[in-house]
Amino acid sequence: MSSIDAPTRLAGYLGEDSSLGLAPGGSPADEIRLAWGGPGATLTMVTWHFGDLDFALFEGDRGVCVQPALRSRAPWAGLVVGMNLGGTTVALEQRGRSVLLPEGHFTFFHGYVPYRISTGGPHRWLVCRLRFLRVGTDTDRVNGLLAGDMTSSGSAGSLLSELLRGSTQARDTLRPSGRLHCADAIHSLVRAVVDEAALPHGPRPANDSFGRYTQWLEERIQTVGLDAEAVATAHHVSVRQVRGVFAGNGSTVSAFVRERRLEHLRHDLLDPSLAGCTVATLARRWGMDNPPAVNRLFREQYGLPPAAYRRQNSGIDSTP
Length: 320
Description:
Jelly Rolls, 22% strand
């Protein structure tokens, strides 16, 4: 934990300066400028990591206004969740939108787009950075949700709020495997929040074909030959109907199967109990037996080839 006297600047507010890159002149690209409501204010910051999630908890005894220094940096495909854990209401502005967050409420924002966070008094502000967006999460849809009160988006929003609060409380007691599963749960709930916000409110329709098809595929995700024809045959419908249902949900059968297999592989790569398995062995476990294709697809989705991703995020030194 670090204590910061105002006024000052926080450089690399999640403690990962080298991973964030440098702005022109060699200064950290995530340099944060703070303006304080009065002299003598203090701010404490503690950071931790769950799997591929980065957390930072700020606690201040005065009002504060935070905004990043205007630096040029490459676009980043991840997302930041900001949550008011207690104290006065927190305001966040980004891309011409603004939101007021009471205690227990959270919002989405991007760390590479100018933003402004302010609060008028004592506060506890939690930041959770997702280094990448999970498979199936449309970046354009996420951009449309920035600086909105996502806690009120539906049931998933309430669940994510409770999980973020619980993760903060348990950060020092969870075992490594528990942190990994907690990170998976947060990623999944973020995607659920995005999905809920994009759909009309109310109960799911009785004829939820997409839900039935994807559940059928998930139950057989390790099986070869999963395509639109297989789904159509199993559900006694036409291939055209299956493709239409997936198109209506912004996907295809092949894309869904590929993304889910990559996601299962990503989870296995971080699992300490599978440290003795090679990348190729784990990929075959999920129906992927072409190592060059696996490396290419995994890198496209997560930014690194699987062996490098494993070393960086789990400490496991593996071979393909």
